[in-house]
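so my prof wants the structure for this chain in the tokens format not the other one, which i didnt know existed until like an hour ago. anyway here's the sequence
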Amino acid sequence: MTAQNPLERGGPLFQQQCAFCHGRDAAGGEDGPDLTRSKLVAADVGGDRIAPVIREGRPEKGMPRFSLPDAEVAALVAFIHDQKTKAEAQVGKRRGVETADLQTGNVEAGKVYFNGVGKCASCHSPTGDLAGVATRFEGLKLEERFLYPRGAKARITITLPSGEKVMGELAYQDEFTIGLRDAAHRYRSWPTKQVKFSIDAPAEAHADLLAKYSDDDIHNLMAYLQTLR
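here's what i got, hopefully its the right format
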């Protein structure tokens, strides 16, 4: 029986071990970066850069360690390099967005927008919640983070008929019922007709801005956010 060469073996291995993050063709997925344009891959010679990353992982970026035999690591390296070669041959068909593409704005104008008309400073602080944000998120992921924030919890204050106020995290809302989780993480709900309530939903402010941003606003704000390291 003829043994598979590393490249033939690398494709199926990549689909099993890596494609869920880096995409089936190594050009990037929902969480993992595009390996065909990776500086580390470009500098790799015979697996000297890629193999340590596979074996040791990058826990700080969510990449686990993989305990694989040398032959399988070599097969993955061969596949990644092959995909890089194919991607570079597709002139004019770049799929992703380079970090440099998102660095065309004016930093000072972005800072003025952040502290002024954008009202970003009313909720965020460059030395508080946004300190180091550009080291945690890079390029397109950073832009997506401020345009479409995820996980921003809405806070609600409910005033009962007695005048008592109950505060917590909004857990449920429809035409008939309003519910929250209080500081003890207990779920509590009331008929909407029996209480008064006010909701502070930070993510809605971001959604409202989508209709107001100019291209320059986005570019400038992105340039400013990339300085927060």
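also thought this was worth mentioning. The first helix runs from residue 6 to 17.
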